[in-house]
Amino acid sequence: MATEVAEAMEEGRHLLVQAGTGTGKSLGYLVPAMLHDKRVVVATATLALQHQLVERDLPRLVEAVSQIKKDVPGLDTSYAVLKGRSNYACLHRIRAGVPDDQGTLVDVPMGSMAEKVLELREWAEEESEAGGSGERDNAPRHTDREWRQVSVNHRECLGASKCPFGAECFAELAREKAHRSHLIVTNHSLLAIDAIEDVPMIPDYDTVVIDEAHELTARVTQAATDELGVSDIERAARRASRWTADAAGDPAGDLEDAAQQLAEAFEATAPGRIDQVSTQLSDALVLVRDAARACLSAFPRESGGEGEGDAGRTQAKGMVQEVFVNAERMAAGSQADVLWLGEARDRFPARLHVAPLQVWGPMRDKLLTDKTAVFTSATLMLGGEFGAVATSLGLKPTERIGHQVATTEADDALPWKGIDVGSPFDYGQQSILYVARHLPQPGRDGLGPAQLDEICDLVDALDGRTLGLFSSRRAAETAAEAVRTRLPHLTTLAQGDAQLPELAKQFVEDPHTCLFGTLSLWQGLDVPGDTCQLVIIDRIPFPRPDDPLMSARQRAADQAGGNGFMQVAATHAALLLAQGAGRLIRTTSDRGIVAVLDPRLETARYGRFLKASLPPMWSTTDPALVRQALKRLGQSA
C-alpha cells in the first residue's frame, strides 16, 4: 500500500485502496505522505481515527523518521491538526460574556449549566496559559449546549484583527501552525467546506489522503445541507432589532412578519420531499430572503466607533446573514437541490431542509481536478468492484487504469487506480455468515414473532456476547425487551439506556451481555476478543422509501437511464452491511458469526451483489449448524 500511495503522489493520479482492519493502513499512507515533497492533507471521518493519528501513529512515525532524517535532505516531519472554528474555545466569549437574545453581553451563565460552563471557562484559561490547543476534544465532559457558551462559529467570530484576544486565539494559532506544517490532519467536513464550498479553511496543499472514504459522500452532503426554521428567523430579527432600530422603516420587524408568513406556508405544506414548490411557500421564502437582505443593509457600518468589534453585533449580523443565505438558496428552486419539509414532533416545530441532489459533480470539478486524492477504507469494493464507490466520489469507471475501454487519454479524464491490499484475517476460518432463509421477509410492522424467536435462540446458544444491529430504534428496543424477558440471567443493553461509551464499556467488561442498537453501532464500535462473537442484523439496511434525499437520488438515476435501486438503495445497503459485518472480526484471534435475519440476502436477485460486498466469510443457511457452532464458541470462551 505504501508503495502504491507513493507512486500515486509522485505521478499525480488518484488511487482507491481497500485495506481491511488490522492492515496498518494509516502508516501505509502516513509514511509516503511524510516523504512527499509537498504538503499533504489527511482527512478522516471519525474522532477516534483522528486521535489515533495524532496521539499514536504520527509521534511514532516522527520518532522513527528522525533516525534517518540526516539521510533524507530537506525532510519535513512537521504536522498539525485543523478543525472548524467552533471546535475551539473562544477566549473573547469566555472573558467578555455571551450575548443574550437582545444582543447584550451576559457575563455569568444562568441556570443549571452554570457550574459546567464555569468549569469549561477555567479549563480554557489553563489551556491558554499552558500553550494548549483549546480543542473541544480535550475539554472536560460537556453537552453541545454547554460548549456553545464557550465557542463561536465562523459567522459569530469578530476576526483576529478586531478581537482583543486575537493574538491568543486557539483557532488562529491552529491555523498558523497548519500554515507552517508539512502534514495537516483534518476532517471530511472541513475538507468539503474548503474544497467544494469555496470557503478557504485549509492552507494550500498538493495531495489529500481521505481515510474512511466510504463516508465521504455522506459527510460532503451533510456539509452542503442547510435548514431553516421559523424560530431561526424570529431569533435573528430580535437580535438585529438593537442594531437596526435607527434605520428607515422597521427592517427587523419586517423580518419577523416574514417569519409569520413562512409559518403559515409550513402549515399548508405536507411534510416530506417537495417536488413542486407551492406559490405560497415560494412567496414566503422570497419574502424572508428580501427582508433578511434589507435587515443586513440596515446594520450600521463599522467605523471604529460604537459597535466596532462588538460580539453582540457580530453575532446578530451573522444570524441574519445565515437566514438570508439559506432562504436565498431555497427560493432559487435549483434542480441541483432537493427540498423537503421535516415533520413537526413534540416540542420541535417543522423545519425546511435543502441538500444537493448529488455531490460527485462538485467533488470532481472542485477537488479531484485540482488535487491528487488517495481514498482508503476497509469497504471500498461493493459487489466485488470499485465502480460504485468510484462513481459516487466523482471518478468514472472507464477512467480506471487498465480498463478495457479506458478514456484516460481524454483532456478532462481523471485516471485512477484501485487496489485491494487484502486483510490479515482468514475470514473463511474465523467467521460464518448465516442467512436465516427460513424466516418470513421483514415487514413494515417491525420485528415479528419468528424474528424474535430466532434472536432469543441465537443469543441463548452463545449465552450473551451479542451485538444486535437494527434498522430502527423501535426494533432494537423490541428485541432487547424480548431477550430480557426470556433470558433474564443475561444483561441486555439497548441504545439509549446510557451514553454509548458507557454501554460499550459495560459490554466489554461482562461477557454475558448483549448490546442492541442502531446506526451509530453499525460503524462506531470496536470490541475485539470474546466480547462480541455474534453480530445480529435484523434486515438489509435499505434507505427508508420516504427518505427525501435518497428517493430523489434514486429517481434521478432512473431518469438518467440507470438503475436507481441498484445505484442508490442497494449501494447504500451494501456499504452499511459491510460496515456492520465488520464489527465481528477485529483481530487474528477473533471467532464468530454474523447472522442476517433477512432471507432476501439469499433469495433476491440483488442478494449476490450484497454478499459480494461482505468479507469472504464461510456461508450457511442451516439454523441447526449455526446453533451448534455458537454453543461451541460459548463453551470455549
**Largest beta-sheet details:** 7 strands, parallel
CATH superfamily of the largest domain: P-loop containing nucleotide triphosphate hydrolases
- What's the CATH C level of the largest domain? Alpha Beta
The rounded Rg comes to 27 Å
Sequence of strands across the biggest β-sheet: 3-6-2-7-12-1-13
CATH topology of the largest domain: Rossmann fold
The total strand number stands at 20
Number of distinct helices: 25
**Count of structural domains:** 4
InterPro entries: ATP-dep_Helicase_C, DEAD/DEAH_box_helicase_dom, DinG/Rad3-like, Helic_SF1/SF2_ATP-bd_DinG/Rad3, Helicase_ATP-bd, P-loop_NTPase
Keywords: ATP-binding, Helicase, Hydrolase, Nucleotide-binding
Catalytic activity: ATP + H2O = ADP + phosphate + H(+)
Family: Belongs to the helicase family. DinG subfamily.
Polypeptide structure, described:
GO terms for molecular function: 5'-3' DNA helicase activity; ATP binding; hydrolase activity, acting on acid anhydrides, in phosphorus-containing anhydrides; nucleic acid binding. It holds the Pfam family Helicase_C_2. Keywords: ATP-binding, Helicase, Hydrolase, Nucleotide-binding. There is one protein chain. With 637 residues, the chain is α/β, with parallel strands linked by helices. The chain has four domains: 2-78 and 181-219 and 359-420, 3-Layer(aba) Sandwich (Rossmann fold); 85-167, no CATH class; 226-355; 427-636, Rossmann fold (3-Layer(aba) Sandwich), CATH 3.40.50. Helix content is 45%, strand content 13%. The chain is built from 25 helices and 20 strands. The strands form four sheets. A seven-stranded parallel β-sheet has the order 3-6-2-7-12-1-13, with helices on both faces. A seven-stranded parallel β-sheet has the order 16-17-15-18-19-14-20, sandwiched between helices. A four-stranded antiparallel β-sheet has the order 8-11-10-9. Helix 19 (500-509) links the parallel strand 16 (491-494) and strand 17 (513-517). The longest helix is centred in the middle third of the chain and has 22 residues, at 311-332. It is globular. The model has no long low-confidence stretch (mean pLDDT 90).
